[in-house]
Amino acid sequence: MTRITFKMLSVLSSIFLLVGCGGGVGGSSRAEKSDGGSGSSGGWHSLLSPDCSGTYCGVNGNAYTGNGIGVWYYKNNKNSDVSLDVSLSNVKNRDITIIFTNEGKGSAVLPNIPINTTLKNEIEMRAQSVGEYIDTFNHIPQGIRDFNANPILQRSELNRAIIQPLSAKTWQVGEERDWNIYKSATQHEIRTEKLMRQTTLTNGRVVNIWIENGEYGNGKITEAMLNDISQKLNDVIGSASGLIGEPWGEHHHSNLISNNQPLDIVFVNFDKNNSPFGLMGYFYALNNFLKAKYLTSNEALAIFIDSETLYLHNDGELYTMSTIAHELTHAIHFYQRDVLMDDGFGIFLNEMSAVMMEDIAAKKIGTSFNDVRFRYTAWLKESLYRYDFSDWDAYGGDNSYDIAGSFGGFLLRQYGTDFYKTLFQIDSNLSIIGVNEDETARERSLDILDRAIKQYDNEGGLTRALRHWGASIAMLPYDASPKGFGYPYKNSGNFEFEGFDGDSYRQYRILPKSSSMTIYPHGHFPFLRKTTSNTFTETFKVPPQMSVSVVVQ
After folding, report:
1. What angle separates helix 223-244 from helix 397-425, to the nearest 10 degrees?
2. What SS3 state is found at 177?
């Protein structure tokens, strides 16, 4: 394909840039004009600031050093639009990615910004393959998810008492029992299951593996599959409970199941459609209540897993273990946050933390497997940048997992598993009250996330992490980006996180074709520029509470 460049060698080219990009090539200033965007009056204020330092940071004032990654930013803290003049030198033949990030609480509509899609195609040609792309979505009934992540509901329904319920029944391998399987939060059907395996983890917890009648044997769940799953359970469950606590234990609530519970993993053919995926599994906190509270409760610490995904997909065992890690995190959240702390996460942080656990456990599940890699790929492929990771289901349930999974994967590669552990230990600011219960839970969860980040990045917290995450849309190298940027390889304690290299994933990145769109809180808007001149100059109108990142590489 012919290489596309912007030639700035003549007056004609200057006029082209002025009209096409909102700026000119001759200016050297890089300030904002507080004139509502006209640029004709008003004072000159703060400059575009360097946003990186140290190794691999290619910033020297307003010049690119010629090596590494150059990152600059500006934040409009005013209540009106401003015009920001950007001028960077030593950028000849360099790729320039500009990202608007909405750091405010309200949505914003961007001004018209010329988008050069031909330039995008030229830059994207350097992509390398990262193998098969699969975007799976666990179609959990919304009512179950809402029940699990509604701290107000749980707070009103937990009865405190000193006397514990009776001990859990002890089951033997080969025994059968009926389980209530939920198709929605209120609709269920009874399936009969046999206890096929019983194992004791190193931490002493008993794990029962149940299989629905008719789902075991040739062509379905085999003994070899059970062996593989049983061997990995200790690593996966031990990893989760070692970081954020046990999924059940002592409590003082009269309407919950007893303290000493085995973990039941129940394999069930949910939809009997002879196809993997769909509803892949769920944890439903209703089952942790006694039947006296909810008649259809299974009165068990239980995780329900799709049997067809296990035996009908080539990587069925890997997806199964990843789903177990995800659903186990929901179980741990309910016990550790709702039952013990009376301070459960809102739905976005509950789901986001569960996706992050899949990332944490990935290398213990399979050396080349990582479901968060697919979430990140989908975030790029579906151009989901402008959406709010904290507004769950507002843009489609599958999109919510992809957006939150991408941000969670970024946070883990920047701050590690100590940050993740901290996330589960911080009390929310209970004085935060939103317009309704969902909004209150979301604002409190954002407060928890912000304070957890600040323990590992005390200068910026959630705001800076959000901006740096947006800069990753420039497709940065995993092994040569400044600290705080990209998706680097990370070894945190006993956990490894694979690096996501920009050149390898560039083929999946779809950029917006127009700026005439709404950017939601925590959302981004990326676009590209390139110049054959030594200096890049352009003027942007920046809405209130919007930041602008300029990335040169």
Report:
1. 50
2. strand
Helix (H, G, I), strand (E, B) or coil at 318: helix
Q: Is 460 exposed, middle or buried (0-12, 13-18, 19+ CB in 10 A)?
A: middle
Q: Helix or strand or coil: residue 228?
A: helix
- Residue 231 to residues 207, 224, 504, Cα–Cα distance (Å): 12, 11, 33
In eight-state DSSP terms, residue 323 is H
Average pLDDT, the chain: 86
The structure tokens listed for 11 are: 């007056």
Listing DSSP states for 512-548 in one string gives: -S-S-SEE-TT-EEEEEEEESSSEEEEEEEE-TTEEE
Taking the C-alpha atoms of residue 265 and residue 185, their distance in angstroms, rounded to an integer, is: 19
What is the per-residue pLDDT across 357-373, written as a single tens digit (0 to 9) for each? Answer: 999 999 999 988 899 99
Q: Which token pair is 370?
A: 């990582």
> Cα 162 to chain center, whole Å?
39
Q: Is 403 helix (H, G, I), strand (E, B) or coil?
A: helix
- Give the residue from 322, 469, 495 showing the smallest Cα distance to 416: 495
Q: Residues 345, 148: contact at Cβ < 8 Å?
A: no
Distance CA 239, CA 262 (A): 17
pLDDT tens, position by position, 41-72:
333 333 799 999 999 999 999 999 999 999 99
Tens digit of each residue's pLDDT (9 = 90 or more) over 387-443: 999 999 888 768 999 999 999 999 999 999 999 999 999 999 888 888 888 889 999
Q: What pairs with residue 540 in β-bridges?
A: 84
CB 528 within 8 A of CB 96: yes
DSSP 8-40: -SSHHHHHHHHHHHS--SS-----EE-STT--S
75-114 per-position pLDDT tens digit: 999 999 999 999 999 999 999 999 999 999 999 999 999 9
Q: Give the amino acid at 475.
A: M
Residues 502 and 526: their CA atoms lie apart, in Å, by 15
What backbone phi and psi angles, to 5 degrees, belong to 386?
-80, 0
Angle between helical axes of 347-365 and 316-333 (0-180°, round to 10): 140
Cα distance between residue 37 and residue 99, in whole Å: 18
DSSP letter for 314, please.
T
Q: Which of 509, 353, 359, 351 is nearest to 422 (CA)?
A: 353
DSSP string, 344-376: PPPHHHHHHHHHHHHHHHHHHH-TT--HHHHHH
Number of residues written out for the chain: 553
Domain ranges of the chain: 11-115+518-552, 136-158+343-511, 175-341
Cα–Cα distance between 11 and 536 in angstroms, integer? 16
pLDDT above 90 covers a percentage of the chain that reads: 73
Cα 316 → chain centroid: 22
In order, the DSSP letters of 93-157 are TEEEEEEEEE-SSS-EEPPP----HHHHHHHHTT---------------HHHHHHHT-HHHHHHH
Interatomic CA distance for residues 326 and 83, integer angstroms: 45
CA distance 542 to 547: 8
